[in-house]
Specification:
Order of helices and strands: HHHHHHHHHHHEEHEEEEHEEHEEEEEEEE
Mean pLDDT: 95
Radius of gyration: 22 Å
Distance between the termini: 42 Å
Number of domains: 3
Largest sheet: 8 strands, antiparallel
Helix content: 25-40%
Number of strands: 16
CATH topology of the largest domain: Jelly Rolls
Low-confidence stretches: none
Structural class: alpha+beta
CATH architecture of the largest domain: Sandwich
Length: 381
């Protein structure tokens, strides 16, 4: 393995792989100018993954002015070379309608190309969406822990899989099934939803989130996200690169259930509470302080929350509203929705709530926040 000094020397000598590594390092430490400079060098050498990364940055407006159409074009150009990173990003933007029209057929084309190149996550998605045991077995062989879990670790040897044939059997009906929604109360608005996510979708979200959980943070008085003792649970947020076709299909269903534009949704969040872990009384809206004014101006206010409980088998762990003297604990796959603002847009302190600690077992839930401004570029930009 090369040392950082050796990687920098190789990058300066014109090695595109090292240039891309240097660029990603600068992205991690928050230096967009240097990240863009080095990624540009790698892209100009023709490195497809670097071209796709530049497209992604242009799509979201990182390190350069936002230009969704140009960003999508770069990603697609890179994907057509067969680069795995570009194929993955292309599958996400087409399934999510991010900066382009939502095109599930094209997203599947990218997934097939990934699976044919031995990508375990793409193979797992195709296996689940088509309900193909051999495809899931192959995904497990390729290293997909999620596929192994769905196969219950009983993975029989399997040879080559015809991924085109697998894709032709895809069934998306679970994302279009009717669900029952009723308003439980007004002032503040609270709704309950039954049958929102099928059990296998709940299991998939848990499997994808579990390896990447980190300590949950809160937004402090200065507008900074920090760790505090009032929140001890762990979380995972699926950004654009972390997402995939199944997760984008789930996000679209959640947006429809919440009656909100998909582009107004924050990244799909997953909450995990072990015994005793808690999120003490808090609100989901952004406090309207001077320090938070730039955030609110750019990204808008959080106006609606959707929580999907992903598992049963635990005691405690309800979502409790102290001012309302009520708590909610939906069954697996069912959801709770509440507004954090009043009809006139003013924040509503009555929505103060608690993520109560489980007293036995562990709790998993999706948290999806919606704002009054678009966060992701839509087809129109």
């Amino acid at each position: 393995m090369k040392t950082p000094e050796q990687i920098m020397a190789a990058a300066r000598a014109g090695d595109p792989d090292s240039q891309e590594q240097i660029a990603l390092g600068f992205e991690r430490v928050g230096d967009p100018g240097q990240a863009l400079s080095w990624m540009g060098l790698a892209a100009r050498s023709g490195r497809a993954s670097a071209i796709a990364r530049l497209g992604l940055w242009e799509l979201v407006g990182y390190a350069m002015p936002q230009n969704p159409a140009a960003g999508v074009e770069k990603v697609i150009i890179a994907a057509r070379t067969g680069d795995p990173f570009a194929l993955h990003v292309a599958s996400v933007i087409h399934s999510g309608g991010i900066g382009t029209s939502r095109d599930l057929g094209q997203a599947v084309v990218w997934l097939v190309a990934l699976a044919e190149r031995g990508d375990a996550r793409a193979a797992c998605q195709l296996g689940l969406l088509s309900r193909s045991g051999p495809a899931l077995a192959r995904a497990a062989q390729l290293g997909s822990q999620a596929a192994a879990l769905f196969m219950k670790d009983r993975v029989a040897p399997v040879g080559d899989v015809d991924w085109q044939k697998v894709a032709s059997a895809i069934d998306l009906s679970d994302f279009a099934k009717p669900f029952h929604k009723h308003q439980d109360r007004t002032d503040p608005n609270v709704w309950m939803l039954d049958g929102l996510l099928e059990p296998w979708l709940c299991d998939y979200v848990i499997a994808m989130a579990a390896p990447a959980l980190t300590r949950g943070k809160i937004l402090d008085e200065e507008g900074q996200e920090i760790e505090r003792e009032e929140r001890t649970n762990t979380v995972m947020h699926f950004g654009l690169v972390d997402s995939d076709v199944i997760l984008e299909l789930i996000s679209a269903r959640l947006a429809a259930a919440a009656d909100m534009p998909p582009e107004n949704g924050e990244a799909l969040g997953v909450l995990h509470y072990a015994v005793g872990e808690v999120y003490k009384p808090h609100v989901d809206y952004i406090p309207e302080t001077l320090q938070n004014a730039p955030i609110l101006e750019k990204l808008g206010q959080r106006v609606r929350t959707l929580l999907v409980y992903l598992n049963d088998g635990f005691e405690g762990g309800a979502t409790e509203f102290p001012h309302l003297k009520i708590g909610y604990k939906p069954p697996r796959g069912c959801a709770l929705i509440f507004d954090s603002v009043k009809p006139d847009g003013r924040v509503d302190p009555m929505t103060l709530h608690v993520g109560a600690p489980p007293t036995s077992g562990q709790k998993w839930a999706i948290s999806k926040w919606f704002r009054n401004k678009a966060l992701r570029p839509s087809e129109s930009g």
